[in-house]
């Protein structure tokens, strides 16, 4: 299956959880995750299932006014 | 109103700050310049955002996070770019986990040209976030009815603009801002956006506003660190002036030098008794 991570389509073996995906991607900490425009808290990574076509956003601290 | 006092603190949601300046972290030339500007401005809080990592800058977020921690300042995440209440509430939830704070600078933009807040979505988002336990600092205009609605839903702080974000025009609607100050005497009011010069910051502090939030006025100055220092002095001066109680403006001239006792006037010596020290008679 393929999913979209930060706007880029990525192939992914299925089935997957968000926790497994994050081990695969290993984004630098700290980060937070939004799936299909819904915030997924850290405590829910393990049971959050990833489906084909899901849009995952991984966000980090950034400058702001 | 009190007298100028070193114990005069800014109190926002029970958090006390000696500084009344809040500083944005965007548009500096380098992380080093940002750190130096923070040191010069000595701000109560730093505003930040959350974004995707740009390709090729994989560790930028981590480096910025380390920089923030080293400054040891209170972090105020924003919801910049959000245009609906739903989007703003989701962004605030992400920010709460990412920055480990329930403080949120709530921005819900209703117009892409002047980046004016959308009052309807703003009130809805503020209401929802307060219910979720957030400490909401809403970016709003000087519109009293909208401000009242924000207070009604539980906002303990308001952040009215001086002018559109990034314009540096200074307070565009002075009379409405001053009226807002009068209508909400017990709500901390922080002027957010549109400040361009230290004199603008000093001016709104003289009017009794509780603080000033700046970004572009510092980061896009020719010498941002020096400008940060100038703003810190201006905010302190304005606050001291407000506490000291400005004189009442007069319509007609009032001489500051005493009229009586001029050496070539026809005043009688009797009328000068308080103004002229009598000569000692020789013994």
Overview of this protein structure:
The complex is a heterodimer of chains A (65) and B (283). Chain A is mainly beta and 65 residues long. Chain A has a domain at 1-29 and 36-47. Chain A is built from one helix and seven strands. Chain A has one helix spanning 18-25; strands at residues 2-5, 8-11, 16-17, 32-35, 38-40, 49-50, 55-63. In chain A, the strands form two sheets. Chain A has a five-stranded mixed sheet, with no helix packed on it. A two-stranded antiparallel ribbon of chain A has the order 3-6. In chain A, strand 1 (2-5) and strand 2 form a beta hairpin. The model of chain A has no long low-confidence stretch (mean pLDDT 93). Chain B has 283 residues and is α/β, with parallel strands linked by helices. Chain B has a single domain (10-244), classed as Aldolase class I (TIM Barrel, Alpha-Beta Barrel), CATH 3.20.20. Chain B has helices spanning 31-41, 60-71, 85-99, 119-131, 144-152, 174-183, 198-206, 216-219, 224-244; strands at residues 10-12, 15-17, 21-24, 45-52, 74-77, 103-106, 135-140, 159-160, 190-192, 211-214. In chain B, the strands form three sheets. Chain B has a five-stranded parallel sheet with strand order 5-4-3-10-9. Classes of the chains: A mainly beta (65), B alpha/beta (283).
- Chain-averaged pLDDT of chain A: 93
What is the CATH homologous superfamily assignment of chain B? Aldolase class I
Instruction: Write out the strand line-up for the largest beta sheet of chain B, numbering strands in chain order.
Output: 5-4-3-10-9
Helical content of chain B (DSSP H or I, runs of 4+): 25-40%
Shape of chain A: globular
Largest interface: A-B, 23 and 35 residues
Number of strands of chain B: 10
Query: Secondary-structure element order of chain B, as H and E?
Result: EEEHEHEHEHEHEHEHEHH
Helix content of chain A: 10-25%
Shape of chain B: globular
How many distinct domains of chain B?
1
Strand content of the residues of chain A, in percent? 35-45%
Coarse structural class of chain A:
mainly beta
Strand content of chain B: 5-15%
Unreliable stretches of chain A (pLDDT < 50, length at least 5) are none
